[in-house]
Design goal:
Number of strands: 8
Largest sheet: 4 strands, mixed
Structural class: alpha/beta
Helix content: 10-25%
CATH superfamily of the largest domain: 2,3-Dihydroxybiphenyl 1,2-Dioxygenase, domain 1
CATH topology of the largest domain: 2,3-Dihydroxybiphenyl 1,2-Dioxygenase, domain 1
Length: 114
């Protein structure tokens, strides 16, 4: 078996709305768009894949897109200023986390290492 990494993807209900969120709110550069939207996030391909069934997006799985930041409090404040609901800071053994969601309820996490 010859396995190779392809991408990380989220199902979304409205591709145009999701492109705006990931590009305008999070500042990711749109690499390409056809049937799906592709963002290159520090060398990792993130795809947004339209799905007609709500059961496809906002799943209860364990995967999260985790975004490293130097100043989590500033990042949380910027997201909140943009109208994004961000959870409380959670202190873990080796850093701080703060969770938020994209327009379809896909969870993303900010991470600041200690």
């Amino acid at each position: 078996m010859d396995l190779r990494f392809d991408c990380v993807f989220y199902y979304v209900s409205d591709l145009a709305r999701s492109i705006r969120f990931y590009s305008e709110i999070l500042g990711f550069d749109l690499a390409s768009e056809d049937v799906v939207a592709r963002f290159d996030v520090d060398g990792v391909l993130l795809e947004l894949v339209p799905a007609s069934s709500a059961s496809k997006y906002a799943g209860g799985g364990n995967a999260r897109l985790c975004l490293s930041v130097d100043d989590i409090e500033r990042a949380v404040a910027e997201l909140r200023a943009a109208g994004i609901t961000v959870g409380d800071l959670e202190e873990v053994q080796n850093g701080l986390l703060a969770a938020f969601e994209d327009p379809d309820g896909n969870e993303l996490v900010l991470w600041q290492a200690k």
